[in-house]
Amino acid sequence: MQLLSGIHHVAVICSDYARSRHFYHQILGLRILSEHYRTERDSYKLDLALPDGPQLELFSFPGAPPRPSWPEAQGLRHLAFRVQNLERVLAHLQQHQVACQEIRVDEYTGRRFCFFADPDGLPLELYEDGGAPAEQTALL
């Protein structure tokens, strides 16, 4: 019996809401679904649409501790985005001064991939598979 039908959303807590909002919306091209300021929490919640259905929720919380990145901690390791043309996306990111690692090849699938980070150092991956919908509006 299949219990899960897919990923609904991934939540990210940022240190600088305006900077992260710009990164995910303007640089990565994710469409804003809704944006709310929650007075009782002194916190923003931004819902962004990924081209294939799931959402990315961006939160700001005052005083949130930084994420440990090295050595790799237990738990979520990174967030990977599917792309059709890796060079095109990398060129776009580099135009926006986003540092990207070298392109690597997955030894099991033969697919190319590359890592970069969001403004808070959250590891993000671009995974080229050529299977994303043609009607997508975001860069990814």
Plain-language structure description:
It is a single chain. The chain has 2 helices and 8 strands; from the N terminus they run E-H-E-E-E-E-H-E-E-E. The protein is α/β, with parallel strands linked by helices and 140 residues long. It has a 4-stranded mixed sheet, with helices on one face. It has a 4-stranded mixed sheet with strand order 5-8-7-6, with no helix packed on it.
List keywords for this structure.
four-stranded mixed β-sheet; alpha/beta; 2 helices; 140 residues
Task: Give me the secondary-structure topology.
Blueprint: E1 9-14, H1 17-27, E2 31-38, E3 43-49, E4 55-60, E5 79-83, H2 86-95, E6 104-105, E7 112-117, E8 123-128
Parallel strand pairs: 1-4, 5-8
Antiparallel strand pairs: 2-3, 3-4, 6-7, 7-8
Number of E strands: 8
Going across the biggest sheet, name each strand in turn.
1-4-3-2
Number of helical stretches of at least 4 residues: 2
The H-and-E topology, N to C, reads as EHEEEEHEEE
Rg computed from alpha carbons, rounded to a whole number of angstroms? 16 Å
> For the report, how would you describe the main beta sheet?
4 strands, mixed
Report, as a whole number of angstroms, the end-to-end distance. Answer: 32 Å
Measured as a percent range, the helix fraction is 10-25%
Low-confidence stretches: 132-137
Strand content: 25-35%
Q: Structural class given helices, strands, pairing?
A: alpha/beta
Overall mean pLDDT stands at 89
What form results from the Cα inertia axes? Answer: globular
Q: Outline of this structure?
A:
With 140 residues, the chain is α/β, with parallel strands linked by helices. 15% of the residues lie in helices and 33% in strands.
